[in-house]
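Example record

One chain of 195 residues, shown exactly as stored in the release files.
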Amino acid sequence: MKKTLFPALAAALVLAACGTKTAEKAESASATVAQEVVSSDIAYIQVEAVLAQCDLYQKEGVALQEKTQKAQKSWAQREQSLQAEAAQLQEKFDKGLITTRDAQAQQESIQKKVASYQANAQKEARSLDEENFVFTNRAQDLLHRAVKEINADGKYKLIINASALIDADSTLDITPAILAKVNELYAADQKDAKK
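Predicted structure tokens for this chain:
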């Protein structure tokens, strides 16, 4: 029994020593990393605020939003109109004011209007979706270009979206600088587009 206990104890000591060295290396590595990253290396951006306040949104985004809301209102009104027309037809038929044959003809006419409305609404919705997609991509492109230019010197090792923050010092907020750069890039893009 002593013969098997001694090798097992020796193996346990070797493993424990290796584990200690590995843990010590990990602790020293994390301490080194923690010392290398200081608060001036980190920044955050309030992305939603930049996108809502930038000139792109103020000039084009608001108009696109209004266009979308107008289309949705128009669709709702058209649906209500078609439903009212179908209800009136049913009421006339129920009261015996029109013949079955006339009711069927008017019902077919309403169904054609509904099919035409649905096709047009779907086409308009696809067009609006595409416009929104392009607008969103342009806004994201401006934001990414602004971040790259602000951090061209590599001053920041980490830039995060403020929506992921729980708590941070306001001195780490570079939102105003990013907003100014986004507006500058948008103005340059507009100038280039006019050429």
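Notes: Residues 39-194 form one domain.
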